[in-house]
Amino acid sequence: MPSLKDLKNKIASVKNTRKITKAMQMVSAAKLRRAQDAAEAARPYAERMNAVVGSLAASVGSSASAPRLLAGTGSDKVHLLVVMTSERGLCGGFNSTIVRLARAKAQELMAQGKTVKILTVGKKGREQLRRDYADKMVGHVDMSEVKRLGYGNAQTIARDILARFAAGECDVVTLFYNRFQSVVAQIPTALQVIPAKYEGAVATAVYDYEPGEEAILADLLPRGIATQVFTALLENGASEQGARMSAMDNATRNAGEMITKYTTIYNRSRQAAITKELIEIISGAEAL
Amino acid sequence: MAGTVQFDLVSPERRLASIVATEVQIPGAEGDMTAMEGHAPGITTLRPGVLRATSAAGVKSFVVSGGFAEITATSISVLAEQAVPLEEMTPAIMDKMVADATLAAAVNPDKDATDKVVADLLAMRAAAGQ
Lengths: 288, 130
What we know:
With 288 residues, chain A is of the alpha/beta class.
C-alpha cells in the first residue's frame, strides 16, 4: 500500500503529464489545419501536372525512344525504396505503419533475388530501419531543420533520386508515405515513381507541342517526380499531425482516467487513516 | 473588344491567379508568345521570364522560373515551378532563384540547358529592373 504522500505525488505528476499531452494535442490540431491547407493548395498543380504528363506519356509511351524515366532501364534488378517518416515521435503508430509496409516490400523483393536500397526521409524511419537494413541504407534526408515544408524540399529529394537513377544506381523507385484520409485514419501507401506509371490517362492528340512531344515529356517527367514527392511529403505532414492529435487525445483521456483512479485510492486511504486514528483514541479512552 | 480566356497560374505551393484575361504573354522555351481567345490548343514549356496577363482590371505581371503552359481556345493554365508577382519581387528572391539554378546547373549533366536557365534568369533580372 503506497503512502498518502506517494499517492499525492503520483496524482500531481499525472496531472502534469495530462497538461502536456493536452497542449500537444492542441498544437497538432493547429498544425494539422495548416498542413491540410498546404495539401489543398498544392492539389490543383499536382492534378494538372499528372493529367498533362499522363496524356503525354500515353501518346509517347509505346515508342522506342521514350525517355528512360518513363520506360525504365529495361531491368528491375535494383529497387530504391524512399521511406518518408516524421522527425519526431509521440505520434502513435504513424511511423511504424510506414516502416512495416516498407519492410514487407523489402522482404518480398529480396525473396525474389532483387537488390534493395533504402533512402530515408525523416529521422524516425531511419532509426527503425537501421536495425535490420543497416547495409542497405544509401542515404538520408534530414528534415529537422525544415520549419515549413516547401516545394524546394521536394525538389532537393527529387534531384537526389534522379541523380541516383541517372547514375544507374537503381532501376525502380518507390515512395513510401502515409496518405491522409482523416484524423483517425492514415493509409500507408507505396507509390512507384520510376518508371512512371500514370494510370487511366488517355492520349489527347489535339495539342500542339512546342518543342516536340518528347522534348516536353523529358522536361516534365523530372518535374512530375518532384510534384509526386511534394504531394507525398504534404500528405505525410498532414498524416503525422493527425496521428499525433489522436495519439495525444488518447493519452489525455488515459491520464484523466488514471487521475480519477488514484484520487479514489487516495481518498479511501485517507479515510482509513482517520478511522484508524479515531478507533485508537476511542479505545484508549475506554481503557481508562 | 476582344474575347476573353480563363487564365490560371498555379505553383506547387499555391494558386497565384485565376482571372478572366484578354491576352496572356508567355515566356515560352522557344520564344515569347501571346495567347488570346481562340488560340490553337498547345502545350509549351517555359523559360525563366516575365509573364503578363492583360485583363479588364489592367496588366498583371509575374516572374516565373520555369514550368509549362497549357493553352486551349478558352483557357490558359500556367504551371510554374516558382512564380512571384512582379510587385512582390525583391532582389533577395531573385538572388535565391539564381543561386538555386546555379546549384542545379552544377550537378546536371546537361550543361548547356542549365547554363541557359541561369543566363535566362540573369536576363530576367535585368528586364525586371533589379
